[in-house]
Design goal:
3 helices
Length: 85
C-alpha cells in the first residue's frame, strides 16, 4: 500500500487533522480511518448475526402478531399499575 489516493475533500480533511495536531502524519490518519471502518464492519456483522438469530428463534418458537404483542404489553403494564396501587 505504497500509494493512497483520497478525494480532494478527504485529502483536505487529513491535511487539516495533521496540521491541528490531532494526528502525527497522513499514515496515522489513514490508520485511524481503517480502524473505524473495521469496527463499523464488525458491528454490522454482529447486528446481522443477531437478526439471523432472532429469525431462527422466531421460526423455532413461533412469531407473535403486532396485536398479540400489544395485548401482552398492555397486560404487563396493567399488572404493574395494579402492583403499585
Amino acid at each position: 500500500m505504497d500509494d493512497i489516493t483520497l478525494t480532494p475533500e478527504l485529502q483536505q480533511f487529513a491535511v487539516e487533522a495533521v496540521a491541528t495536531g490531532r494526528y502525527r502524519d497522513l499514515s496515522e490518519v489513514v490508520q485511524a480511518g481503517v480502524a473505524l471502518l473495521k469496527q463499523a464492519e464488525a458491528e454490522v456483522s454482529e447486528f446481522v448475526a443477531s437478526l439471523e438469530e432472532a429469525r431462527a428463534e422466531g421460526e423455532r418458537d413461533g412469531f407473535l402478531t403486532a396485536e398479540e404483542v400489544h395485548r401482552e404489553m398492555t397486560a404487563m403494564l396493567d399488572a404493574l399499575a395494579r402492583a403499585k396501587a
